[in-house]
Write a structure and sequence with these properties.
Length: 217
């Protein structure tokens, strides 16, 4: 099975050698601080569903209300299924998201989605199992691989932030197509997760031009 990163030294050295443009950006961004998030997998997936299609501030407010329903008790599949639709609607959740949360809880409870054994499976199998749940697509599954399991070689090609970062770092005039993104990412194997983290991080640092490639789209 795919190993979990325990440190990032080898990954950073590989990326800097394989892709000097990326390496220059990484040096400006500082140390990689990616670590597993200190959340139960079920709670993390619930949060991911709640956050979908909401602005950060609105989502944060609803997530806080949602988690507050279960304090001081834990949020589990059982406690969620015992929560009425009216209660969930009362904190601002849509009917669709309530259905997604209930489907997640039901699949965890009946063993269709065995969260405890996910770390033992390959990336592809984790994605397959998670995307059985209504409302969980490939991107959400990839975020779980990165932030819950810290798998070393995940590249979320559909992530808008990654597209914007690659556009900026490599000097493209427009957002790069997936085939262009994959061409860059091939250099980063087997540490695409760390490259992804740095690309996200690059959007937070002061915006100055990076080296330009000859293949502007």
């Amino acid at each position: 099975m795919t190993r979990v990163l325990s440190h990032h030294t080898d990954a950073i050295a590989h990326l800097q050698q394989a892709d000097p443009i990326l390496g220059h950006m990484m040096a400006r961004c500082g140390p990689c601080t990616l670590q597993p998030r200190d959340l139960e997998p079920f709670v993390m997936l619930c949060r991911s569903i709640v956050y979908q299609q909401l602005s950060g501030k609105a989502a944060g407010t609803i997530v806080a209300r949602f988690l507050g329903l279960y304090e001081p008790d834990a949020l589990t599949s059982d406690t969620l299924l015992r929560t009425t639709d009216d209660t969930l609607r009362g904190i601002g959740l849509s009917r669709q998201k309530i259905a997604y949360l209930q489907d997640l809880a039901a699949k965890v409870q009946d063993g269709t989605l065995p969260l405890a054994t996910l770390p033992m499976h390959s990336d592809a199998e984790v994605i397959r199992q998670l995307t059985q749940v209504k409302g969980i697509g490939r991107w959400t599954a990839e975020m779980f691989l990165i932030f819950a399991l810290v798998r070393p070689d995940v590249f979320p090609v559909d992530d808008l932030g990654i597209r914007k970062a690659i556009q900026r770092v490599y000097g493209y005039k427009r957002l790069p197509a997936p085939v262009t993104m994959q061409r860059h990412a091939r250099k980063w194997i087997p540490y695409r997760t760390i490259a992804t983290w740095y690309l996200w991080r690059s959007l937070e640092v002061a915006a100055t031009p990076f080296q330009k490639t000859s293949g502007d789209e």
